[in-house]
Structures are given as C-alpha cells and as structure tokens.
UniProtKB/TrEMBL annotation:
<dbReference type="Pfam" id="PF01554">
    <property type="entry name" value="MatE"/>
</dbReference>
<keyword id="KW-1133">Transmembrane helix</keyword>
<feature type="transmembrane region" description="Helical">
    <location>
        <begin position="209"/>
        <end position="233"/>
    </location>
</feature>
<feature type="transmembrane region" description="Helical">
    <location>
        <begin position="375"/>
        <end position="401"/>
    </location>
</feature>
<feature type="transmembrane region" description="Helical">
    <location>
        <begin position="110"/>
        <end position="130"/>
    </location>
</feature>
<feature type="transmembrane region" description="Helical">
    <location>
        <begin position="60"/>
        <end position="89"/>
    </location>
</feature>
<keyword id="KW-0406">Ion transport</keyword>
<dbReference type="InterPro" id="IPR048279">
    <property type="entry name" value="MdtK-like"/>
</dbReference>
<keyword id="KW-0812">Transmembrane</keyword>
<feature type="transmembrane region" description="Helical">
    <location>
        <begin position="413"/>
        <end position="434"/>
    </location>
</feature>
<protein>
    <recommendedName>
        <fullName>Multidrug-efflux transporter</fullName>
    </recommendedName>
</protein>
<keyword id="KW-0813">Transport</keyword>
<dbReference type="InterPro" id="IPR002528">
    <property type="entry name" value="MATE_fam"/>
</dbReference>
<keyword id="KW-0050">Antiport</keyword>
<feature type="transmembrane region" description="Helical">
    <location>
        <begin position="440"/>
        <end position="461"/>
    </location>
</feature>
<feature type="transmembrane region" description="Helical">
    <location>
        <begin position="183"/>
        <end position="203"/>
    </location>
</feature>
<feature type="transmembrane region" description="Helical">
    <location>
        <begin position="335"/>
        <end position="355"/>
    </location>
</feature>
Amino acid sequence: MTPTSSLAATQFGQRPATPWRDEVRATLRLSAPLVLINLAQHGLIASNTVLLGRLGAEPIAAGALATGLYLLLFIGGIGLTSAVAPLVAEAIGRTADENRAGAGDEARRTVQAGLWLSLIVTGALMPLLWNAEALLLRLAQEPAVAREAGAYMRVLQWWMLPALAFMVLKGALAALQRAGPPLAVSLAALPINLGLGAFLAFGPPKLGIVGVALGTVVTEFLALFALVTIIGLDRDLRRHRLLADLWRFDPERLGRVVRVGLPMGITGIAEAGLFEAATVAMGTFGTIPLAAHAVTLQIAATCFMVPNGIGQAATVRVGRALGAGDRPALRRAGAVALSLGFGFMVFCALLQLLAPRTLIGLFLDAGAPGAAEVFPVAIGFLIFSAFFAISDGVQSVALGALRGLQDTKVPMIIALSGYWGVGVPLGAALAWGAGFGGQGIWAGFCAGLLVVSVLLVTRWLRLSGKPGAARGNAG
C-alpha cells in the first residue's frame, strides 16, 4: 500500500494494511475451516458420548475405555500421516507458484505416500484393537464394563482406515489452502453419524452400544468417498493429480514422510497415552468417577479443537514461509497463532469455571441411570480442566508452528518428558499417595501440560529467531 492509499484508507475509516494485520487475516481464513473440521470430526466422538450417555453410566464408561484406547493408537497414526501437510506446504512455498509441475509432483507423491502409510498403520493395529477386552481385563477394569468396551471396539476399529485416509487428504488440501471441501464433508457427516447411531442403538435394530460404533464406521466411509469424489470433480484440485497412480509404491517418499512423521506420531501417542492412562486409572476408582471423567474429557477435548485447528494453520503458514525463505513472515505466523490460541483457551477456562453444570448437561442426561451421582464428581474435575485448558491450547499451537519448521524430534522428547516424566508420576502420587483420587489425576494433567507448553514455546522462540530458521529436526 502506498502512502497516498494508506492516507485515503485512514480518512475513510479503514485501517491501513500491515504485515501483522495481513497475517492475522490469513491465519483466521485458514484456521476457521480447520477448526470447524476438527469440531465436526470430534463431534463424531462427542455425539457418540451423548448417545452412550442416554444408555446409562455403564455404557458411557465402557465407551470411554474403548474410545480412549482407540484414540491412543489413532492419534499415533494421525501423527505419522500429518507429515503430509508441512511437506506439501514447504514444496508450494519453495516454488512460489502452485501451478508449477515440480510442486504438483511433490504434492502428489507425498499424498500417495500418506495414503499408503494409512493402510500400513491400520493393518498393524487391527489385531490389538480386536483384543481390547482382554487387555482391559488385565488392566483391572470391571468385567462387565470391559466386555461392553470390547464389543464396542470390535466395530469401532474399522473406523481407522477411512479416518486416517481422510486426515491425509485434509492435510494436503489445507497446505493448498483449500480447506473448504473437507469442511463441507465433515459438517455433513456429523448429523449422519448422530442419526445413524441413534437409529442403530435405539431403533428397530436395538444394537445398543454396538449400534453407536457401527453408525460412526459407516459415516466415515461415506465421508471419505465424498471427499475423493470432490477432489476428482473439482477442476482446480484435479490438476494436482493427487489421486493419480495410487497403486504405485514410492519407498523414497514414504521414507521421507515417516522420518518427519514418526516423531510426530510418538508425540501424539505420548499425549494421548497420558489421557488413556488416566482413563484406565480412573476405572479402578469405579464406574461413577470413570463416567464423570469421560464427560469432563469430552468438554475439554471440544474446547481443544479450536487451538488444534489454529496449530494446523500455523503448520501451513510457517511451512510456506520456510519454503520461501522468509524468516520475518515465519516468525509472524507463529506469534499470531500463539496469541489466538492463548486468547481462546482463556475464554474456555472461564466458561468451565462459571457454567460447569450446563456444560456437563450437554453430554449426560440428568435422568439417566447413575447420572445424579456423576454430576458432582464431574464438576470437581472441571475445575482442574479449566486450569489445564490454557496450557493445552498453547502447547498445541506451538507444536503446530514447530511442525511447520519440520522440527519434530525435540518436541517429541519434550512431550515424553513432560507427560510421562511429570504428569503421570505426579498424578499417581496425588491420586493414591495423597488420597485425592480422580482429582489427583487431573492435577497431574495440569502439571504435565504446563511443563510441555513452556518448553515448546521456548523451543519455538529459539528456532524461529535463527537466521536460517530450522528444517528437518534441527537441534
């Protein structure tokens, strides 16, 4: 903008453009659909929790155990395949022209490697998921709850392949700054999942907890088919040939995706493992604390979808700036994303403190069997959830910015150290040693996430300040 146009804009009440304001707009434009996609995808799990809550305390507890174990492994798979987004974003930024053949070829090869990886990961994890009941019994869960959780998992496990493939395509389209198609599909999938799950669980089939899982599996296959169809019909996306020659196995590109994605997968497992360990530990205190924990976790996870989407946008914005060699733009992208994530999670923390009963009522029917006992326990857990929400949001955005730099190994070490070196032992000491029970476990959450968020932000500030920034897991 020239000085004259800047003066004219000011005279007519418009603020002149600045690099920072432009970055805020760009981040919001990209993160808004990603946040909505995350909310819609999480809505599949949240709506399942709502349906299970209508079945009673035992089904919601069983669903929490099965879903926690599933997500522990699924998030590891997401981490592995999430390398697709920063690699595609860097390729686009480096060529500075999405129409150039080099960028399109790199994007196609990376997407195909991600889809192959989805298939490999699913095949490796299916035997473990099939035997969830036996695993839960070994972890001292109540037999009736473990039995229902096992039945739920044997259906839910078929969700993994289409869900991972969908995430690969979503990441690639986000890097191309075309988040609209996966958003439209995700929003359409949510009511389908709720309707199918309700029909199969409560309708003529009366499949109960198994019907809820089956509705989600069918919905995800429909969503993947719809997204693939859109990519094939959209003229702008079709020129990238993202789905061409899918049968060709590219070991070199698959190796690169794994090198960048493996630390991301381990990081995801480290965080998800913290929550799954807490869920399993909560089950040893009985069905009521486990049900309260499940509801509280859904509230926290719903809030988390927003900074998670902002972090995904930061991955793309930082990755493009990295490819273009623009360090000021790179630092602006990270700073803007961190500020947005922090601000939103402060709002969420206040909401959890001020309206706990209303939030819990969204996921648990007050008239369902055992619900009256669950409400006061869940309110106590929400106090801790409010405090850990801010750290959780900040660490997610910082992690996304570092992934844009393709810095994944050190964040993995930070996550392992913070979650398992601080959160788990402290939570165990408070839960059993100090006698605080479930609240002690949530206090461990708070401590582990605080350590991780501080270290990740420090890492970002150090790497983004380097003249050459960072690429490929800088030390």
